[in-house]
Design goal:
Layout lengths: L6 E4 L2 E4 L2 H8 L19 H19 L3 H12 L1 E2 L6 E2 L7 H19 L14
Antiparallel strand pairs: 1-2, 3-4
Helix pairs in contact: 2-3, 2-4
């Protein structure tokens, strides 16, 4: 596992938030390295997952008689399947960005509307528990 050190760039200079940890880590390695600088990936949020599981999946579950775990697996097989590898894999939501979870949720809702005739309300139209 490789640590990620976060910081900010201004005027072409990087300032790490935890410079001491970075320096300590450098002392543990020797030889060639790679340095990758990128904008941070915004990971999915708890409200997104509460809406997906507590509203979208719950409504599909109630409509189909499947349990929520079955609905989750079916939706991942339909909308998060990666067939670009020798062995097909399912992209896990824990590795998805906020945008990817939003797109996944929208595709699931669209499928529910088209194939099941099921209207699923928007997040601002329902209350999800904290």
């Amino acid at each position: 596992m490789n640590p990620i050190f976060q910081g900010t760039v201004k005027d072409g200079k990087i300032k790490l938030y935890n410079l001491e940890s970075y320096k300590e880590y450098l002392l543990t390695i020797d030889g060639d390295v790679e340095v990758i600088v990128r904008k941070p990936i915004k990971r999915k949020t708890n409200p997104q997952l509460r809406y997906l599981f507590g509203v979208v999946y719950k409504m599909i579950s109630e409509h189909t008689g499947m349990d929520i775990e079955e609905v989750d697996m079916a939706m991942k097989m339909m909308f998060a399947l990666n067939t670009d590898t020798a062995i097909p894999t399912v992209k896990l939501k824990r590795n998805m960005s906020t945008t990817e979870v939003m797109e996944f949720t929208e595709r699931t809702k669209r499928w529910a509307a088209e194939d099941l005739g099921l209207y699923i309300p928007e997040p601002n139209e329902v209350e999800t528990r904290e």
